[in-house]
User: Fold this.
Amino acid sequence: MAEEVKLFGIRGSPFSHRIEIALKLKGVSYEYIEEDLQNKSPLLLKYNPVHKKIPVLLHNGKPIAESIVILEYIEETWKTNPILPADPYERAIARFWAKFLDDKCMLAAWNACWAKEKEREKAMEEASEGLKTLEGELKDKKFFGGDKVGMVDIVATFIAFWLTAVQEVVGADLLTPEKFPILFKWSEDLVGCPIIKENLPPRDLLTANFRARLESSK
Amino acid sequence: MRARIALNIKSVDYEFQEENWLVSKSELLLKSNPIHKKVPVLIHADNPVCESLIIVQYIDEVWSSGPSILPSDPYDRATSRFWSAYIDDKWFPSMIAFFFAQEEDAKKAAIAQMEEGLVLLEEAFGKCSKGKAFFGGDRIGFLDIAFGCFLGSLRVIEKADGIKLLNETKTPSLLKWADRFSSDTAVKELIPDTDTLAEFGEKLQAKMIANK
Assistant:
């Protein structure tokens, strides 16, 4: 039976690219459908009526929304190249870090980059705390997943790729080799992995978007 | 509560350490959850597991011979995880907003949001339960635990404000489910009585407002 896999995403969205990376890592063929946030398609609204957001994965007609829920679904459905460890305790740890990244780090890093003058220092401090925690967790591992890229690394591509692009545009120096040598090295190793590299958006697309945002906020 | 329900379902013996976090947090808690410094934390063979839904999944995976908490089908699992995330990320914050609201307008807005969410959850119940007693089917499952732990607080709000958040008109299935859930053997002794919970809620609210 031919399997039908479709992904509704947005080029440049870290949440969208996470799913593409996971699908490609597992060798899953899929049809990609680009959405326009200003003009959401009827299909997107039908498949994610609760949040009306991307990414949405459609597998044999059944929709799954929320990026981490989708990643867990992909892991359970396609067994090649596992992105979660086999041991329940290690899995719990991986889930903890994925949640920490999404709930705390990402928001803090984003806020720090776009914060107004007055709030900048505090926002930078908070974001740095988050990065320091990640640095501590990485320790002497190549990736959060160990020797191979795992779900936490996939979720953390925001830090490895998007953050470095944003901070360049806004002139923030959050993630630097001096401040966080382990995390910085990890970010270079991650972005250098073939499957990751091929499934990230072009860096100049990101910097162009961020520059436009910076201009319009002035 | 979520972790305790899961442990009860699996008939796992455990030692419960009450944290009196209105006063101070214990050394063990701070050491086991240094990042968030919050409960619950499950310590299994000296290994700490944090975040309630992560703990429930861990319990399900470790004690795999007991009744399953997450469904076996990957799509049903995704549905359970989706709605649990909705509860934690969207619905529960509106409940917190209600507890913190000091003006009538803010309270009304929070209630309206909660009610909207409950209607969505009523619909989700129809799809997940497939005509059976719980979100998880014949037995309590992941989503029952994720949502059911808030029934005590729901009842506090209903009593204090005289509104029926779960009602015959908008959420008839959830209304019946709530009774079944609360009387289940794995849950029964864990839901505090409404007045005790209301009192605790007032102390917590006062402390949090003072800390802002």
Notes: The first helix of chain B runs from residue 2 to 9. The two ends of chain B are 26 Å apart (CA to CA). Chain B touches chain A at residues 35, 44, 47, 49-51, 54-55, 57-58, 61-62, 74-75, 77-78, 81-82, 85-86, 120 (CB under 8 Å). Chain B has a mean pLDDT of 91.
